[in-house]
Amino acid sequence: MAVVGVSALLLAVGVLTRPGRRLRRGGASARRADPLDLSVLSELLALLRLGVDAGLSLGGATALALDSLADAETSSERRMLEGGGSVIEVLESLAGRGGRSVGLDALVVSARYGLPIGAALERAEADAVAELRRRTETGIRQLPVRLLFPLVLCVLPAFVLVGVAPVVVAALRV
Predict the structure, then answer these.
(1) Tens digit of pLDDT for each residue in 13-53?
(2) pTM for this entry
(3) Which residue would you say has higher pLDDT here, 156 or 27?
(4) Domain boundaries, given as residue ranges, for the chain
């Protein structure tokens, strides 16, 4: 009976503290612009590179890539480009929303100063893919730790109640 009480107490503490952590994380990201999902950024950079390699200008490739994605996450950049904003402003917006870690700053500098953009695009795409892979592998490594909580609080007490408790009760009756 004590195992069930301790399990219920730990479950209550876990449930009560979990929403607070989400609120703190949400509050911190609410101050900045919404971060861009890395998988969307990686796909956008791949489309941009394909467009530039096919002979489109950077503006044309950016417009085509944003239209091809038609994702809610890139809608602000699409509206900015359709409203007459420059490609550099769109790239700076993307860099500000999470692309700094994947080398979009070099892409912005290349676009601003007229440097060859192919190498910067290729590097930014490779960085985005590597960062996405790193985050995925980190999540995979954290999975066993996250699965320990339900195992200890749900499966283990159930095993004790179904498997061990009847044996103990039968031994006490004899």
Answers:
(1) 555 555 444 443 444 333 345 777 888 888 888 999 999 99
(2) 0.65
(3) 156
(4) 38-136
Place of tokens 């500098």: 109
Q: 160: which 2 tokens?
A: 């004790």
3-state secondary structure the chain: CHHHHHHHHHHHHHHHHHHHHHHHHHHHHHHCCCCCCHHHHHHHHHHHHHHHHCCCCHHHHHHHHHHHHCCHHHHHHHHHHHCCCCHHHHHHHHHHHHHHHHCHHHHHHHHHHCCCHHHHHHHHHHHHHHHHHHHHHHHHHHHHHHHHHHHHHHHHHHHHHHHHHHHHHHHHHC
Residue 72: CA count within 13 A, CB half-sphere: 1
Instruction: Find tokens 């900015």 and name the residue.
Output: 80
Distance of alpha carbon 26 from its chain centroid, rounded?
14
Phi-psi region of 36 (alpha: psi -120 to 50; beta: other; left: phi over 0): beta
Query: What own/partner pairs with CB < 8 Å and gap ≥ 24 does 151-159 have?
Result: 153/7, 153/10, 153/11, 153/14, 157/3, 157/4, 157/7
Q: How many Å separate Cα 97 from the centre of its chain? A: 12
d(CA 23, CA 26): 5
